[in-house]
Specification:
The longest helix is centred in the first third of the chain and has 36 residues. A 10-stranded mixed sheet has the order 3-2-1-4-5-10-9-6-7-8, with helices on both faces. By secondary structure, the chain is α/β, with parallel strands linked by helices. It contains 29 helices and 10 strands. The chain folds into 3 domains: 347 residues, Na+/H+ antiporter like fold, CATH 1.20.1530.20; 149 residues, Rossmann fold, CATH 3.40.50.620; 134 residues, HUPs (Rossmann fold, 3-Layer(aba) Sandwich). α27 links the parallel β7 and β8.
Length: 763
């Protein structure tokens, strides 16, 4: 450890001690003044938050997960350390008051649901699908062996360690499950720190942990359901299992769509502060109550709710960050601090209990390691990869503490057994990061793995892969019909939801049936094009389409909708061209209300007569700038979805370049288009011309090549009137084929009016 890091840790330790003194004094003063337990409760919460956060920071700097610091804070303030050294001070800070304990337990129980909700939101089922063979074999084997060991251990435990010897089976089932699960968050933290998040073995480790967690919470929920029954019966087991399977089946079919719609409706219609966070909590509570109703524990409902919420494309970055901040800032330090307070490690002075704890750690580590290694080997991994998998799956961390806390509260675990499990979680979690780092550092990169990583790096910086939601503004004109088709082709290629905004405004017919028919035709055309694009990507969800109408001007309608968060605005309206050339004033006013990326569609030729007509040949005028490349990316995506031919044309003004500059520009353009075409698996014919007039050159190419669509990446020019430059003006005035002008937002895709998602600190 460097001197700088050591001094930082020393400073943090001093701050922690100072904070404890300050908060202790505050608790005493508040309690003396108020004479009730509310002041003590506030003081205890503040103490757990401050000490947990500061010790968590120290653990992070030591290469350990922050949650270990929060757990250690509770252990230091509890009977294990402070209670052993200064029992009067410990009792003063945390008096044995039934009223206080009830209030703290209520916070802890709700915190458990929030932690499970967050765990579900971090669960990427798509990751499991990509590496399902190795992940499933590793998980099944990694669960089966330690589960059998835990079950066997449960039957060997002395009666003195059991809360109820008559219900030994329930405790044994619980021990088997507790020993077999892993902590996804801690595994993800180490894999991310090592730069292996997208490596093959990193994905397999994460996917295996996800499967572990999912299976583990299902089994735990059923076990807790059985624990709630007065007597064990196979009929009760069958009822719980059937109810769980039915619940999961409905959640991942109808429930997935319902959760998406509820979040979408809340985001688009509510104006209060943090409405989406509120509805996420309602969804979590509803799912938790449903699982309680079918006879299994509420943790399963919260976990499944988190998975469905995390899959919603309407979950914007800022909403996600706000929710994580709430959980990490309040509930995590309080919950894990209370878990530490509930542990009394002084009982391990008893030789029998100490030996049993060592045996528990050994059984958990060996069972998980051997099981995961065997599963990885049979899943097609190499010896080194299987070793890394075995090392990574051994961390229990926050997951184990949550499970143990619920087990203690339900009477499945005795106090001593709870302490032993917490000690096991602490030891395995501290041991996992260095062993996994050692194993990962020995893994070479395969060729196909390198190619996949290069592709993912491209997608991370590309334009289309980062689009999540499209706003389509149309008025029923030929431009609107063609814009609907193009939007469907684009949305279908990524499974993106689309909001259709009817901007007919004052032009809207008094006959509502005509308006409904027009919108129905728009949606029908969009969905047909989306289905065509989606045919090659059957794993993608179907495009969700909703229609909005506003009895206002088009620009006011766009301004209203833009607040709901969209990445791209596609506009198809009449008039597009102004009387004096360029874009019409009404169109300029409309797009000025949208800060993100825009695409302007002008239907001509065959598409002016039939907006649903196919696109057969697309021309992409390109240059070396970023917006041109992003426009090319969108055009090639459309071409692939429509199964159309595509050609790129670059015009370089000969008079302004010497031969060396000319070669460099030609090479840059060629490489840029080739890279996009390669990653999109499309064939693009590239033509480079040196010409004095780019507009004339493009018009000649359109006529000679019989292109029916020109898709061009452009930049917005400053000014009140919308302008993309002289070349765009020439095409608007003289081109006989359809046009799409794509103006990407240079700051990156706009996530929402509430933006900014980032990964949380691991815990």
């Amino acid at each position: 450890m460097s001197k700088c890091a050591a001094s930082d840790i020393l400073r943090l330790a001093c701050l922690t001690a100072l904070a404890v003194v300050i908060v202790t004094t505050s608790v005493w003063a508040a309690d003396a003044k108020a004479g009730n337990s509310e002041a003590q409760l506030i003081g205890q919460i503040l103490l757990l938050i401050i000490s947990g956060r500061l010790l968590g920071e120290i653990m992070l700097r030591l290469g350990q997960p922050a949650v270990m610091g929060q757990l250690l804070a509770g252990i230091l303030l509890g009977p294990s350390v402070l209670g052993a050294l200064f029992p009067d001070a410990q009792l003063f800070l945390f008096p044995k008051s039934p009223e206080l304990k009830t209030m703290l337990d209520g916070i802890a129980q709700f915190g458990i649901l929030l932690l499970l909700l967050l765990a579900g939101m971090e669960t990427e089922l798509s990751l499991v699908r990509d590496v399902r063979r190795a992940a499933i074999t590793a998980s099944v084997s990694g669960i089966a062996l330690p589960f059998a060991c835990g079950l066997f251990l449960g039957y060997l435990l002395p009666d003195s360690l059991l809360p109820d010897p008559q219900r030994r089976l329930i405790t044994a089932l619980f021990l088997g499950t507790a020993l077999s699960i892993s902590s996804v968050k801690i595994v993800a933290s180490v894999v991310r720190d090592m730069g292996f998040m997208r490596r093959n073995v990193g994905q397999i480790i994460l996917a295996s942990a996800i499967v572990d967690d999912t299976i583990g919470w299902i089994v735990i929920a059923i076990t807790f359901g059985l624990a709630g029954q007065e007597t064990f019966s196979w009929l009760g087991v069958a009822k719980n299992v059937f109810g769980t399977l039915l619940f999961l089946g409905l959640c991942f079919t109808l429930g997935r769509h319902l959760v998406f719609k509820v979040i979408q409706f809340t985001n688009d219609h509510f104006r209060g502060e943090a409405p989406v966070i509120a509805v996420i909590l309602v969804i979590m509570g509803t799912f938790a109550l449903i699982t309680q109703l079918i006879g299994v524990h509420t943790v399963l409902g919260a976990f499944v709710a988190g998975i469905l919420v995390g899959e919603s494309p309407i979950l914007t970055e800022e909403i996600d960050r706000q929710f994580r901040g709430l959980v990490a800032g309040l509930f995590m330090p309080v919950f894990f601090g209370l878990a530490g307070l509930s542990s009394d490690l002084t009982v391990l002075k008893d030789k029998e209990l100490a030996l049993l704890t060592i045996a528990l750690v050994a059984i958990a580590s060996l069972g998980k390691g051997v099981g995961a290694f065997t599963g990885g080997w049979f899943g097609g991994l190499t010896t080194r990869e299987s070793t890394a998998l075995a090392m990574g799956m051994n961390a229990r961390g926050s997951t184990e503490v949550i499970v143990a806390t619920i087990g203690l509260s339900m009477g499945i675990l005795s106090q001593n057994l709870f302490t032993m499990i917490v000690a096991m979680a602490l030891i395995t979690t501290i041991a996992m990061p260095p062993t996994l780092r050692w194993a990962l550092a020995r893994l070479p990169m395969r060729r196909e793995e390198k190619q996949r990583l290069e592709r993912e790096e491209y997608e991370r910086n590309a334009f289309v892969p980062n689009l999540e939601r499209i706003l389509l503004a149309v008025d029923g004109s030929a431009n609107g019909r063609f814009a609907s088709r193009l939007t469907g082709l684009l949305a279908g290629s990524r499974g993106m939801p689309v909001t259709v905004l009817d901007i007919a405004g004052a032009k809207r017919s008094p006959d509502k049936d005509k308006d409904a028919d027009r919108n129905q035709d728009t949606v029908k055309s969009l969905k047909a094009a989306a289905a065509q694009a989606n045919a090659e990507h059957r794993d993608l969800p179907k495009v969700d389409v909703i229609v909005r109408q506003h009895d206002t001007t088009p620009d006011e309608a766009v301004a209203t909708e833009a607040r709901h968060g969209y990445d791209l605005l596609v506009v198809g309206m009449e008039p597009t061209v102004g009387k004096r050339g360029g874009f019409a004033d009404e169109l300029s006013k409309l797009v000025s209300q949208f800060e993100g990326s825009i695409a302007i569609v002008s239907a001509r030729g065959i598409h002016e007569q039939d907006g649903a007509a196919s696109v057969s040949k697309i021309l992409i005028p390109v240059s070396g700038n970023q917006n041109a490349r992003r426009g090319a990316e969108l055009a090639i995506t459309l071409a692939k979805s429509a199964q159309a031919e595509v050609a790129a044309l670059s015009i370089i003004e000969r008079e302004k370049t010497n031969k060396q500059q000319l070669r460099r520009e030609m090479q840059a353009v060629t490489e840029g288009i080739t890279k996009v075409a390669t990653y999109l698996k499309a064939k693009v014919k590239i033509t480079i011309r040196t010409d004095a007039d780019a507009g004339t050159a493009i018009l000649e190419t359109i006529k000679r090549g019989k292109f029916d669509l020109v898709a061009m990446g452009v930049s917005r020019r400053p000014g009140e009137k919308l302008s993309f430059g002289n070349v765009a003006d020439v095409l608007l005035k003289e081109a006989k084929c359809s046009l799409v002008f794509m103006a990407p937002q240079t700051r990156g895709p706009m996530k929402s009016a509430q933006k900014g998602r980032e990964e949380p600190a691991a815990g």
